[in-house]
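Quick illustration, no need to memorize.
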Amino acid sequence: MKEHFEQYNMIHLSCKTALNKAGTLKTEGLLEQRDDYCYLKIDDDYIHLIHPILSAHYDIDKPDYFRLPEDVGAHISVIYPEENVTLNRAHIGQKHFFRVDGLIKAKFGLKEYFALSVTSPTLTVFRQKYYLDPKPNFKGQQVVFHITVGVRTEPDNIIIE
């Protein structure tokens, strides 16, 4: 079943423990690309240390892309495949810095995503070099730069046939 995102609902959450822990982690990463997906690879401790704090308050799972050793792991999405951009190879491996701004919960289709919202002036400029909007475009919706640390499927919205 293809997901259709009619609305992007974002709610700011308060969890000082999670934000304080995030404040102790490195705020830099390297640009990587897999197929047509460009992301900033960051310290996996953003998942290992923040997810347990949030899962004490919310029934959430680790993101799917963090389950297998060869998966992407902790990252910040920079350019989504549907944005149809081919990167210059010289940009792969570039270091960028970011700042954690807060904790958000965003609902897309049948899932809720728990994430740290981040800002990165250099990632914004990087996107603009490719004539893209300042914010990433995910399935037709502009989204903030973020680090997804947990996912929850809404049981009320699941249809079993």
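The radius of gyration is 16 Å.
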